[in-house]
Amino acid sequence: MSALRGIRLVALDLDGTLLPSNKRLTPRAVSVAEALRERGIHVVISTGRGWTHVSRYARQLGAAGPHVCLEGTFVARACDDGGPPQVLSSKSLPPAVIAAAHACAEGLDVGWFACGDDLRTRASAHLKERLDQVRIWDPHVEVLERIRDEDRTGHILHLVGWAPDLARVHERLLALRLPGTELFRAPFWDGLDQIAVRPAGSGKHRGLEIVRDALRIAPEETLAAGDWLNDLEMLGEAGVAVCPANAIGEVKAIADHVLPGTSDDDAVPKFLEDALRGI
Predict the structure, then answer these.
(1) Residue 23 CA to its chain's centroid (Å)
(2) Tens digits of per-residue pLDDT, 132-160?
(3) Cα-Cα-Cα-Cα dihedral of 269, 14, 233, 162, to 10°?
(4) Which of 19, 70, 92, 205 sits at 20 to 30 Å (Cα–Cα) from 155?
(5) How many helices (H) and strands (E) in the chain?
(6) Could you tell me the pTM of the whole model?
């Protein structure tokens, strides 16, 4: 039986799932998205990236959405002409919470970046050497030598540093019990760790709930593809869960289909092509 039998929505993570290492959509990915839409199946991006990237990939895929970005804190439909998105949901951290979180990193070897309410990203000068990684979230990054009052906005505040310093920050954040927030700690890049301070009730799975409600689609009518820690809940709630061979072990453990190829092999688009033939 085809993995797409009874599926009305396909939710796709970007990095490590749909996108190869060069971060460019392949012709096969674009083609299969079009084929899915022709069968009446909605194609939705679900990612931790910011809206600038998501809207560009959505236009290339020809998929209006709604799409999930910034770990579910922002859900919107894309405009064909690149205009402002049609926002379904937007969650931000209060300035006081951001200020308190910044204070937890004082005196430690920790940098930060955040996507503000204007959907543009600011980063501390501490992360100058790692802007290429930050630009995965947003290609337009403003580097700040010091934080200004007007910069204390954000959908998610990412604190980045070495594990011992991040452990101290984590302890301080937990002690504060910041209202209306949750913490997501995970590896970042080159041995660094990150703590994401985000609004309570965040996550790709929460964003997809909003998408499904808007489209009147049930969880069991959803196929989701992902590869990393922030995909676990999304995959766990989907009717069909798919991951490429490069996915982490926790994801492979819950996936219905662990593909033989990686994201560099176009594994997910190939799988979807085969599934379409079986409908």
Answers:
(1) 14
(2) 888 887 888 999 887 777 667 789 999 99
(3) 140
(4) 19
(5) 9, 14
(6) 0.94
